[in-house]
Every structure is written in C-alpha cells, then in structure tokens.
Amino acid sequence: MLKMRARMNGKTVLITGASSGIGRAAALAFAREGASLALVARNAARLDAVAEEVRALGVAAEPYLADTADAAQIGAAVEAACARFGALDAAICNAGIYLRCPAEALTMAQIRTVMETNFFGTLNTIYAVLPGMRARRAGSIVVTCSMDGKKGVPPDAAYVASKFALNGFQQVLRQEMRGSGVYVGTVFPSRTDTPQIAHVACPGITPKMAPELVANAIVTCVRKRKKEVLVPAGPCKLLVLGDALSPSLGDWMVRTFQLNGVAPGESETPRH
C-alpha cells in the first residue's frame, strides 16, 4: 500500500463523473490524501473499478450510479452518501460531456443536451449538497470547468457556452457564500488527455495534459481554498490576459497556437 499523507483523514469527498478521466484521477488523488470517497457516475462497471482502485489505497469508497442531469438521481446519491458517511466535506462537480461542432451547424437539441449535463447537471449537484453544508457551516464545492469557460475556442460553441455559464454561476455563488463556512472554487483545465477528446489531436506546442495534473489542482483547490485555479497556470494566464487586453489578440493566440486541435475529417486552422 502507498504511504498516504493523510491530510484529509476523516473527510469525505463526493466526486461526480468519477468513472474515468479527471474524475478517476481526482478520486485516487483524494484517496492518497486519506479521504473517503463517494463516487458518482453513469457507467456501473467503470465506476466499480475505480472504487476498487480507491479501496486498494486503504480508504473507504462507495459507488453511486446516477446521472447528474436528473435532479432526483443525484439527489438520491447525495442522500445515500450522507447516510453512509455522515456528511460530505467536499463535492467535486466534475461530470460533463463534450460536443465538437461549429456554431452554425448546431441544433438547439444538441445545445440543450450539453447544457443539461454540463450546466444544469452541475447545478443539480450543487443544490443537492449545499443545504447540508450550509446547515453545518462547513464544506467545499469545487467545479471542474474548462479554459473554454475563459476563452471560447472553435469549434466548441455549445461546450463553451455551458462552461461560460458555469464560470458565471460560480463567481456569484462564491461571493454569496462568503462568511457562510461554505467554500466555492473553480478549476479551469486546458485540453486534458481524457476519453472525451481522444479523437482530437493537439499540436506539440499545446499538448494534452495528464488528468493527474488537473486532479492535483482540484485537491489543492480544496485544501488551500483557492477561488480559481488555471491548469497549466502560466500558459492559461497568458491567454486570459491577452484576451482581456484585446479580443483580437486572444483570437490570434487561439489560431497561432492551434488551441482548437484537429479532429478526424477536419483541416488545421490556418495560421495568419
């Protein structure tokens, strides 16, 4: 068994989208900190496998099958987790879907599907855990957003819209929870090597990150109660600053560094 730092012994963390990618990496990262895990996802087989990986690190883990887009399902999962562990010390709202499609080609049905999971599904999770945290005057709510919630990158219009909505909601919730004992934070990863974007090729100058880097940022966000964490910090801050100085400069940076990547059947974005 790996020696754990045990900085979160006695704490319980709920993670949505825990069956793969960033969610799985976050589950293992929190387990190494000594936290017990309530794991939520839609794929039972993969979720059970992650729970076994977590238990192998010597901490408790319970899988809960739920679709966060269904308020009743995530509500039941949170209720069951609280019954099992007593209370939730942190909730990592990580579940999401990715749709790569130019804005002009999108249907309203596609946009609504992305919003139901990425935005409303996250809100369903927040509203399921918030009353208990408010009553205890303690707890952390951290959302895995995306750098697409800071700077829109083609051809991800629906995905970008959902992440901008999350960013705005979190900014307000964070301010409203000040002094309540409930901490609110947001993590903004750049392109990450997860199954969702396995079909997207990224240039060498902006390669996909390992999900473990994002997981470590999530743990840091909870432990140090950071309001926002950009991953990787340097390049992401440059993009945010460039876009704040001039949207034209931000657009140029997206094109020049090919931040959109290339999927099968697409041509590379011209550099000019």
Give the helices and strands, then pairings:
Layout: E1 12-16, H1 21-32, E2 36-41, H2 44-55, E3 61-65, H3 71-85, E4 90-93, H4 108-136, E5 139-144, H5 157-176, E6 182-189, H6 211-224, E7 228-231, H7 233-245, H8 247-256
Parallel strand pairs: 1-2, 1-4, 2-3, 4-5, 5-6, 6-7
Helix pairs in contact: 1-2, 1-6, 3-4, 4-5, 7-8
CATH architecture: 3-Layer(aba) Sandwich
- CA-based shape: globular
Question: SSE order in H/E notation?
Answer: EHEHEHEHEHEHEHH
Calculate the terminal CA-CA distance, rounded to whole Å.
53 Å
CATH level 1 class label: Alpha Beta
Question: Helical proportion?
Answer: 40-55%
* CATH-derived topology: Rossmann fold
Rg for CA atoms: 18 Å
CATH homologous superfamily title: NAD(P)-binding Rossmann-like Domain
Low-confidence stretches: none
Largest sheet: 7 strands, parallel
Mean pLDDT: 94
Count of helical segments?
8
Domain module tally: 1
Look at the helices and sheets and give the structural class: alpha/beta
How much of the polypeptide forms β-strand, as a percent range?
A: 5-15%
